[in-house]
Design a protein that fits this description.
This protein has 303 residues and is an alpha+beta fold. It has 2 domains: 166 residues, no CATH class; 106 residues, Tumour Suppressor Smad4, CATH 2.60.200.20. The chain is built from 4 helices and 18 strands. A hairpin with a 5-residue loop joins strand 10 and strand 11.
């Protein structure tokens, strides 16, 4: 049974009948195969070129001209061997929201890793949802704009030690009992503080809360959402004291129909910060710190 088929079953049913449907679906071997297939996809994505394992630097750019290269005299100093001593400059014009890469004489970069046509200058897009990567050998990077007008250069190394030595994600066994029906209660125009690992806080719109029964108790989780996207949950639980990533995990939940959906903790996954020191991940809001243990989904190997 696919997830979409199951969601369609929710219309007009009680939570009790939903629970029965969940148990029936989870008993199907196809359910376990679906979870394992999903886990294989997220593993492949993590290991991909420009995936989190390849990140080799995170640098806040200054307004104006930023010199970039492996030489120590650069404002953005890259690892030796990753770039020429002077790769070029990145100019930030915050008033025009424009970032321009100008390469040093004789240096080329490319719009794709195997692109035969190089460039010496180009404008870099800064949309976090459209990562405008540029390439040179094992090096690639892009610029993203963050809150409060910050421009961040993310550097990737195709041959990073983290990528080459990564032993793979580890997971709890698939447990059908961790796939539970949930009631969704929407908020109207509510904002909550989301703090990241650097201690930076931002006000984010919260779609509503998910209410569900697990371990014999009723529990709630606030959920964020962009229009048309699944609900997004940042949570932590007692397993962070031993087996899972201590700061918390992420979870996507299908959009509710008639106020009902399903939470599958078998698909709880680690944020980028569990794999790279060059990321800034949001932390669970206090109301999403669960007192019980959610022994399902992804475990944590340690940095």
């Amino acid at each position: 049974m696919t997830g979409f088929t199951f969601i369609r079953m929710l219309t007009g049913t009680t939570l009790l009948s939903v629970a029965a449907a969940v148990a029936h679906a989870a008993a199907d071997p196809a359910y376990k195969a679906d979870i394992e297939s999903w886990r294989a996809k997220v593993e492949k994505s993590l290991r991909s070129d420009n995936g989190w394992l390849t990140l080799a630097g995170r640098h806040e750019l200054s307004s104006g001209t930023n010199t970039v290269g492996s030489g120590r005299d650069n404002q953005i100093a890259l690892a030796p061997g990753l770039a020429p001593e002077r790769l070029g400059t990145i100019e930030v014009d915050a008033d025009k929201d424009k970032v321009t890469l100008r390469l040093a004489s004789g240096v080329e970069m490319f719009n794709a890793r195997n692109d035969p046509i190089g460039f010496s200058e180009r404008t870099l897009g800064t949309d976090v949802d459209r990562r405008d990567w540029v390439y040179r050998g094992r090096l690639s990077f892009h610029v993203i704009k963050r809150d409060k007008g910050k421009y961040i250069l993310r550097v990737s190394d195709l041959e990073s030690d983290v990528r080459q030595n990564f032993a793979g994600r580890i997971w709890y066994d698939v447990d059908p009992r961790m796939r539970v029906p949930a009631k969704f209660v929407p908020y109207k125009g509510k904002l909550i503080d989301i703090v990241n690992v650097l201690g930076e806080s931002s006000q984010e719109p919260v779609a509503g809360y998910l209410e569900f029964r697990l371990h014999g108790r009723t529990q709630r989780l606030d959920a964020l959402a962009d229009p048309g996207e699944p609900l997004f949950v940042i949570f932590s639980d007692r397993t962070g004291e031993s087996t899972t990533y201590p700061p918390g995990r992420f979870l996507q939940v299908a959009l509710p129909k008639n106020g009902k959906t399903v939470i599958d903790f078998n698909k709880a996954y680690n944020p980028p910060c569990a794999f790279s020191a060059f990321t800034t991940c949001p932390l669970p809001p206090p109301q999403n710190v669960l007192k019980s243990g959610i022994a399902a989904g992804e475990k944590f190997r340690g940095h």
